[in-house]
């Protein structure tokens, strides 16, 4: 009698402990309930403070990124993990002072309106004759072929029209031909190709690379072809190798031969603190990491939390990670869940289109559709509509799918415009960007949508819980070892404007 009574008491106590944590009908804790908006916001606030006191940015190669890395390491240790920091080199670029661009004897053009500087531009102070290079883009495109520069004399400034090949190709041809600077002006073929050209020239160049608007470029070509045009270009940039980091931490529980990778990029762009992009994903992954131990032995597959560095420079951290795994190590990764931009103020509930039901021709690895289905079922159960997000590899899942690893994820939208249909579903403003502060200084703690962030974080937590339990529909793994997936066709890692 007495024994039974004690047993009952202990049983009751255990039940009440479990039910104190939000649980499903069977009494199992639910990660979507354990992951709280308030905790996510607290991490975002911490990241904002780090940015504010470190020059307003958390970009790779900057002090704000170093401190962000230390922050994540410390938070993970506090939650009981033993995180590892993976260092990798990358090509750091920074414009020290805004470039100068003017016609000899005037006028002076306005930086940011008339022209921009392309990433990886060299430094220089050049006054020289401008030469229009194949302005009609005969053949491949203006400046895309070395022969286009036949009429250029050593030390001249090459005027090249955008299009036909990458900015890098044009810069390479110009530099090889002896140009002292290159101006790649916009081609005006679409409304978004009228303004100054900003983008990346891919790798460090010796010569200044600036991007005039369509109007200015056309005017300059006219002047250069009808007479002698002398221009002054001055750029002041840093191009050097620096070290960035990935932070990786595994749950203690779970099989290490069928690992679920939950990833988010930790870095921002140089222009701002990156609290939506991607403090939101970082904070969500940290909060999931903090709460997952409460699932106890529900965690059958190890969960690996990955905080990627230098995403903004072209998915560099995730690419480094995936390409530095041996084939055997790669085959232990069941899938990748990626979270990048979860709180866009004018956002939507975007689910990566892992089965390419939208017909974008993305050719996703098998299993990616099953991941998408888990998200769709979750939001469906909650009667929350979602929108397909093109599975184009424009975030850190790109290197995973390029290597045949199934992936999925959520996002609330970046620079693209909300449609009228989406405004009906999600509220907000049609015709305005999902995130009007995308890649800008105003991507601060205030740049957020609490409702969408909360719901997408719930979806993220749910998917982690589901796959920690079993990845059967994704990779056929039902407690037995799996065979590695075949590599898939290469996806463009393009998170960058390259041409
Ligand atoms: N990779 C993001 C921006 C981005 C653009 N499209 C998507 C789709 C899904 C996630 C993210 C994105 C950036 O870091 O800039
Ligand atoms: Zn970004
Ligand atoms: Zn991002």
Automatic annotation (TrEMBL):
What are the residue boundaries of the PA domain, all occurrences included? 141-219
Origin organism is: Actinoallomurus acaciae
Cite the residue spans of the region called Disordered. 479-499
* Residues of the signal peptide: 1-20
Q: Where is the Peptidase M28 domain?
A: 246-463
Highest taxon of source: Bacteria
- Which InterPro entries does this UniProt record tie to the protein? M28_fam, PA_dom_sf, PA_domain, Peptidase_M28
Q: Write down what this protein is called.
A: M20/M25/M40 family metallo-hydrolase
ATP-binding as UniProt keyword: no
Keywords tagged on the record = Signal
